[in-house]
Amino acid sequence: MKRAAAARAVLGAVAVGAAVMLVVSVVHDPAQVAAASAQVTTAEPTTETTAPALKTQSTPTPTPTPALSPAESAALAERVQQAVRRSVPGAKVGLEVFDRATGTTVTSLNADATFSSMSVVKLLIAIDLLARNDWALPDTATRNRITRMLSASDDAIASSFWVGDGGSAIITRDVELMGLTSTSSPATAGEWGDTKVTAADLVTVYRYLADDVPAAAHDLIYDALYHASRDGADGTDQYFGIPDGLPGTTWAIKQGWGSSGSTAYYNTTGLVGQDSRYVVVVLTSAPLGYYRALGRALTNGTAQLASVVSP
Fold first, then answer.
1. pTM (global) more than 0.70
2. Where is the sequence biased in composition, kind Low complexity (predicted)?
3. H or E, element range at 172
4. Is the residue at 182 inside a domain?
5. CB-CB contact of 177 with 127 (8 Å)
6. Within-domain flag for 1
7. Are strands 14-16 and 251-260 parallel, antiparallel or unpaired?
């Protein structure tokens, strides 16, 4: 997380991704985060995982893998939570894994609990922009901006789209478009990273992207998510969660990281596996003092899903 050294005039306390979200946002002073994080030990970074060749929109073909019983599903979700909490005690975890081939939920935990989206909301911004254009691709410059907003998690571009496309009205339109039930606009209009989301609603978003968005628009978004860079626009390693936790899988991801007030958030979301078979969403939050540890804790938790998410 890049954080500005100078204070900015503010009406809130949300920081995400590469820069401040808007002039109404607060960026935490670096000393504040450093002091809060000083007592937390962070793990060594993992090695980079390179995504395989791009796959285009298609319907996954089910393979004869045995379904988990309700008890096994619940036990898996608990292992994810406990793996996160070994590094960050008391962390809040919300997760859902959906198998598009069988149309079933593999595992879930607190799937209706709300979290601040941080940069995951950029996926909603992109979908809204294209939907309002009747899914026709925009000009090259706009396509390039969408790609960078998603792949490098560029905050400045997201802020520009947010202001130009109606701010919180973007979320209202997305809720109606995709039938989301628990997603809501940020309390302070300019703080797009404080959009409230749930694991269940984000599964709905990815299913909509995979199954309902017309091919050209789908491929623009998917290609950007598939080519998510190791480092975000702010220099943050954004391969926590799915990329480092599920090595060897094909993935197309949108990550989110940042803080709102005294709470830190790390979220990993995406389409995983051959033909985007699985939707994987793991959301986490903890007191700000665990900010530097939460990303690695999320990776440890996501790694527990390797037994059920095939490459």
1. yes
2. 37-53
3. helix 168-178
4. yes
5. yes
6. no
7. antiparallel
pLDDT tens sequence across 221-278? 999 999 999 999 999 999 999 999 999 999 999 999 999 999 999 999 999 999 999 9
What's the confidence (pLDDT) of residue 189?
A: 85
**DSSP per-residue codes, 228-257:** --SB-TTS-B--TTHHHHSTT--EEEEEEE
Question: Can you tell me which residue has the tokens 């090595």?
Answer: 247
184: left (phi over 0), alpha (psi -120 to 50) or beta: beta
Any idea which of 38-52, 196-210, 250-264 has the lowest mean pLDDT? 38-52
CATH code for the domain in which residue 146 is found: 3.40.710.10
What is the rounded distance in angstroms from the CA atom of residue 133 to the CA atom of residue 177? Answer: 13
Sheet strands (E) in 69-143: 92-99, 104-109, 115-116
Residue owning tokens 């070994």: 86
> Could you tell me the two tokens for 273?
């596996």
Average pLDDT of the chain is: 85
Structural domain contains residue 7: no
Query: How many domains is the chain built from?
Result: 1
Q: Is residue 298 part of a domain?
A: yes
